[in-house]
Fold these 4 entries.
Entry 1:
Amino acid sequence: MPRFAANLTFLFAELPFGERCAAAAAAGFGAVEILYPYDTAARDTRRALLANGLELVLINAPPPNYTGGTPGFAALPGGEDRFRYDIRRVLRYATELKAGLIHVMAGQSDAANAIDTLVANLQWAADAAPEQSFTIEPLNPTDKPGYALADFDLAAEVLARVDRANVGLQFDSYHAQMIHGDALAVWQRHSSRISHVQIGDAPGRGAPGSGQIDFPALFAAIDASGYDGWVSAEYTPATRRSADSLGWLRATMP
Ligand SMILES: O=C(O)C(=O)[C@H](O)CO
Ligand SMILES: [Mg+2]
């Protein structure tokens, strides 16, 4: 069975940020991801992780200081200086928090050279921090209209062009199902380049079992592929308490 992590931006969001690590550990998770850890001093977050025996799997780049603007700059021609500034800042957090992965957000762009820009920026980041692992994640156009990376096959092409061992694909079952209509088929097509997994059902982005995705089959395929990273729960609980949305986890564990 996969090893499950909790995304603390989605799960336990009913609690103050400072209490979410303890709640995740109490629910049985061994790791967490925090999409935007930038509002809290890194040393406080690190202390909470350590106190609860949690690994930090992933944070997002850039920090969300783009009020009303594009989610990320990696695919924005002309945004290279901003991209580099953000990556340097995120690297400081990742180092202090010992975050295993940085998800680099592409941003919204329909420029003809958006993908060329994304490739070049990812190469720059990968070379600037060769010890750090990065991911890219296709996001579905219903939730993120205009996002430059909205297709897993395109993401595979981008990774082939980037050609760096420390840049991989982030597979989110929710986006895979929304974009391609069959998350399991996307997994089978791209598992060799996947370095991080997130799960949520579709449509609706609820807990596994609330939508169309066959999670027992997906978990079996993840195991069969030899993927040994974390599988992070990134969904919106339908229950008031996130802990009450974890029936799928209890059903999955032996
Ligand atoms: O939306 C998602 O699925 C993500 O993982 C992003 O990081 C959120 O911005
Ligand atoms: Mg995701």
Note: The two ends are 8 Å apart (CA to CA).
Entry 2:
Amino acid sequence: MVELMAVKDYAQQIAEAIATVVKIDVEVADHNLMRIAGTGRYHKGVGLSMDRQGYVYQEVLRTGHQFVIETPGNHPLCSPCKARGNCSEKYEVVSPINVDDKSVGVIGLICFTEAQAKLIEENQQSYLIFLTKMAETIALKMKEQEFLAGLVSANHYLNSIIDCLDEGLITVDLDGNVLHYNQAAKRLFSTNLLTPRSHLKSLFSAQIVSDILGVGNNADQVIEREVHVETKKNRVQMILRALPIDGEKGVKSIGVTLRPLDEIGRIVHRLSLQDAGYTIDDILGVSESIAQVRERAQAVAESKSTVLIRGESGTGKEMLARSIHNLSSRQQGMFMAINCTAIPEALLESELFGYEEGAFTGARKGGKIGKIELANKGTLFLDEIGDMPLFLQAKILRVLQERQVERIGGIAPIPVDVRVIAATHRNLEQMMAKGEFRQDLYYRINVIPMDIKPLRDRKEDLQILCEHFIKGFNQQLDKTIQLMSEGFRKHLYEYSWPGNVRELQNVIEYAMNLAVGTTLSEEHLSPRLKNIEIRDDLDKFNLEKVERETILSCYRTFGAGVQGKERAAKALGIGIATLYRKLARYNIE
Ligand SMILES: Nc1ncnc2c1ncn2[C@@H]1O[C@H](COP(=O)(O)OP(=O)(O)OP(=O)(O)O)[C@@H](O)[C@H]1O
């Protein structure tokens, strides 16, 4: 609650007004017996303490009732006073100043002459009522002050909240004059562009200003636009929202919020990708090839250079790409995965590059941001890049070379800072030879090649992967599987795993759904695995079979092209002619 001191000027005015009319001095004191206002001989004592003399005031403050003292100096209340018996006051009427049933001060009429005392004594009742009214007026002023102080503090609090927002917020009147803005908005614009006297015209294009002001005509309308803003550092793309602010009689002003686009991307990323948290430790496997993949991922994570991950479907290419992203300082940015096969060719371009409003028939109002832009400061994962149409390969090449993206129908290229990780299961060298894949793009993306071997060529990884999936499905399916029977295990080891780790995951899930108890056995296998021929243990030592499998695995690793065969022959330690002979002999295509 405010103190009486806060309305001291007002109290002085009241005291002087009373004194002028009734020709009797007036004194106002607060609950600490500090003189707040005074007229005549008490005027110079304003601001001084009265605790050595205000014994009558103390009584009024204590009881909260009016008090009339006809014999100042001789009244029992005056006994502690040093002016006792020698008081210059002749008569005194005191009223409490009550606020919310609490006495916060007093107001007194003090007579110094017999004539004044007589006047009051004869009209005591009227003077008491008058003094009560004056005390109420002061109390009312205090309440008003309190209300105003509350408003100021609420306003201050509201401003602090608005300033806490990361989003820029500007309010304007219906003509576009800036009324208010928060600190985030102030930070966004270049110096002196946004001031309390600015107009929207100095911040946005005429079209955007007109769109914003249009919101003022409709209390339900909210618009969203993408805008370019000249910030202190550079030109930044933002999402602008304008919404009407209702007053008592319809829309009175308009709120405009601004948020940088890449920030939105980061939020979407954080909220939408539940498996984005893959780390390098999630890539399981004890094989040398997987150990190398993990090592290389760590080594190249911080680099901006493009990575090309090769491997059959289900070998964990996307998982590896996500791990690289999460290992790098780009992990705060978005991991934007685009599957070039999953999106129809006609849509792929607009998905990747976005478009401006009116770029083509059916283009959305306000345009659309492309995935490459969304991946700004993050990683763009181009899955199945081998399936990307040639005209888009050229556009992607330009993004990689110039680090800029041009929207369909756009005029100015937009700078982007993305790290590209591409993946494919296809033989890009062969595609290149046939003219299906651009050579320049191939060299541009193949800066850091990483191969993930098919599961059939690293069966030593089966055990750890199975344990991992069993553990996961035990939780998911509420099972208690502990073991795999020998027969079950043999089938897994004999199978060729065309679907790789993904297929293994499905096989374990299938088996665990059927299994009761703690062991997975042959009967829980899907028919495809159950029916494979299990070789005799001795069979695995058969020299021809071992040779055939080694050549096959080498052939798969290095590819079927001429170069691949040369590398395979070198790895096998045989001449190229011998390799051709063995390929023919073992009927390897
Ligand atoms: N080494 C591994 N350790 C643990 N899980 C793995 C491993 N490799 C793959 N997986 C799992 O296999 C599944 C398939 O992985 P992912 O989608 O990354 O493969 P991909 O090669 O990108 O497949 P596609 O080419 O079909 O898109 C995922 O569930 C992934 O978690």
Note: The longest helix spans residues 124-164.
Entry 3:
Amino acid sequence: MVETPGASSAPTEARTVVVRVSDVIKHFVHGKRQLRALDGVSFELPEGRFLVVVGPSGCGKTTLLRILAGLEQQDSGEVWMRPSRDGHPPFAMVFQEQSVFPWLTVRDNVAYGLKLRRVRGRQVEERASHWIRKVGLSGFERAYPHQLSGGMKQRVSIARAFAVDPDVLLMDEPFSALDEQMRTILQQEVSSLCEEQQKTVIFVTHSIDEALTLGDEVLVMTHRPGRVKRVIPVPFPRPRDVVEVRADPRYGELYEEIWGLIAEEVRRGPQEHR
Ligand SMILES: Nc1ncnc2c1ncn2[C@@H]1O[C@H](COP(=O)(O)OP(=O)(O)OP(=O)(O)O)[C@@H](O)[C@H]1O
């Protein structure tokens, strides 16, 4: 279970915690005003767990992910991630779109993170080729991003993230720019890869469908300033078929529950002081 003050009371499994977020507060300055974006966000994530974060637009989902990635600094509170064994950052990030380098080929994009981590020549080749194959891009090694479809570009980003073998994957709406067919295909692929590779994932999305399809837990945030409103366990077993789970009667019930929580926040609107 993700441990939060708003979480359900299901028993905690004895798994190693790999991410801990404690009472994180973050403000942004807008002109003369200070806007509180995050207001005391806390949770713990055990190894191998897939957490999906949803909430009203502007509630701080991306800010939370950027703080986890060290791209943004919180004003107070703590973020801890279990250090990796090799001393490199323990996470990799996949963004919404355009996160591949247009001047690099597919192969060089996938190899990029490996080179940053000083992986040696032959191993770079092997690992890049392995992940290019895994995401179905064999034959496109020498193609440039402008020669690829949106779905193929996201496959490159996914391969680049998996290639460095991070313990934690941070994913910020990675499929939101794709059409529904491609989104479903990539959801299935990412779900299977994360199951196979035992990754711990924090995944931000606007889509309740996507949250229920992929997550072990769905963390619903309040409207701004973002707090943890509720954490909802997703009961569907793994390995998971992302189309089959939608036919489960519990799917509709969970959808309604999450939608109700988000709608309540949208109706309430942003609240600076609560
Ligand atoms: N660099 C920044 N400078 C100023 N304000 C910012 C900055 N980044 C985010 N904000 C503000 O912080 C709040 C949270 O933004 P954030 O992008 O994290 O929300 P979000 O939940 O990811 O939104 P969406 O669902 O629309 O993508 C918003 O009100 C936004 O305007």
Note: Residues 249-268 form the longest helix (20 residues).
Entry 4:
Amino acid sequence: MRNDGPPPGRTDRTMRSGDFSAHVAHEILVRLRERQPRVHAITNAVAKNFTANMLLAAGAVPSMTIVADEVADFTRRADALLVNLGTLDTERRAAIPLAIAAAEDAALPWLLDPVFVDASPRRLAIAQQLLARKPKVLRANAAEFEALARRPADRKGAIDLARERGCIVALTGPTDIVTDGRHSIFIANGHRLMARVTAMGCAATAVVAACLAVSDDALLATASGLAIMGIAAEVAGEKAGGPGTFPPLLLDALDALDDAAIAARLRCEQ
Ligand SMILES: Nc1ncnc2c1ncn2[C@@H]1O[C@H](COP(=O)(O)OP(=O)(O)OP(=O)(O)O)[C@@H](O)[C@H]1O
Ligand SMILES: Cc1ncsc1CCO
Ligand SMILES: [Mg+2]
């Protein structure tokens, strides 16, 4: 059961973009645990289970159905929608526009994770159409960013795309760039093992979706989600024997993450 209390997100006006800090990330994590927002995740078959467990470890409540005659209902009762293109089969292709329409109707934030748009012209065309529908956040790795944005995956490219598209751009890698086109935040947290197992980016976008569900400030929410993910990964990486033990340790670390760890470990510039 979800806690009683104020509905998630869209009421808080106390945070301003440009003020990212460990305190902000911790406050959003506390809100996640208190409010337990629902995240409807249309994600790929590879990332599905791990993403659901990462959402639970963050404090959110996942749902993942992709069936055409249910996906709008699931989206309407959620607090944020994730659209991930990783395994873009016919069922997901049908579900995605229905879910986005429901999110628009319900004024929910939705996020686009354009997995492998660099690999297929058809997928790239679909991602371009989805980007034109104005997701609140675009989260991509460098190759996906370059294919979608048709420019180098660097600070200037991310800022220019965010300005042109009116969304938050989160360009991830060893250092994450988060920008709304005016303010930019650079997060250096994370662990090399994140690049040695699949679905870390997919899960990161899902954690950002949960943060967006409890904050009006999409820039700070996105930075918070990526910082929380990166810091939990550092804690997990220090204990992991390799890529096999890393994912469950990351779930444990995210579940146990506290203000002391965030304050001690956050590495960001803005
Ligand atoms: N070498 C690295 N060192 C530290 N953190 C990293 C490294 N590579 C990626 N990360 C972190 O891993 C997360 C996922 O980013 P990445 O860009 O690798 O996603 P991705 O390529 O979309 O992943 P996937 O498609 O497998 O889900 C981000 O939080 C990022 O900061
Ligand atoms: C490996 C893989 N293939 C399609 S989606 C996915 C998960 C990483 O994005
Ligand atoms: Mg990815």
Note: The two ends are 38 Å apart (CA to CA).
